[in-house]
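Re: the 220-residue chain
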Amino acid sequence: MSDRPPDPVAGPPAERLARRLDEGATRPSITEGLRELGRLDVAAYRAIAGTRSPALDDPLRRLSQIATRSKLWLGIAAVMAVFGGAKGRRAALTGVAALAMDSVVVNLAGKHSFRRRRPDPLEAGVPDARRIEMPLSPSFPSGHAASGFAFAEAVAETMPALAIPLRLLAAGVAYSRVHTGVHYPGDVIAGALIGSSIGGGTGLVARGIDPRRRRALPRP
């Protein structure tokens, strides 16, 4: 019998560690989780493409086209500036500032960081009646969804009465991008979250520098 001390690596602690590593290897990894989310995203896109909705196809296609290059939001801002008085002009300016910030974050940074390929509407079976021209930019995140929610949240900070109508309109634009076949659902969800953050932040900054609020504050 040997008088040498036991090998510290070969004892029970090492066996327990090995078992834990083996168990950990069977758990879903983050990478596999992301792959599964991607498969769900594609499945949802195909399910929408395969669901016939002739009464909605043309209105959603037109809504998606009107919102391109933020024409819809700039038009609403113009109406607010003309007919909304001082408060409307301030809300319009805040909304346009949020659109500018959103464009930098999403179109210049976000899309070129991820470079997700656009879906294939023909392969998924998107009906001809709802299809629009496929953009050349990467798919993730959706610029239309981001700009819509950025504008809605920014304006809502100044004119809360418009919050619900603008959010509903932004949601309609976001969904139209999936309905027309140019985005996956995950693209518009990410765009909506990014745009909401940008718009909310822009609105809070605008409220903080509002000269009327400064005059209303009590002087020390």
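The longest helix spans residues 85-114.
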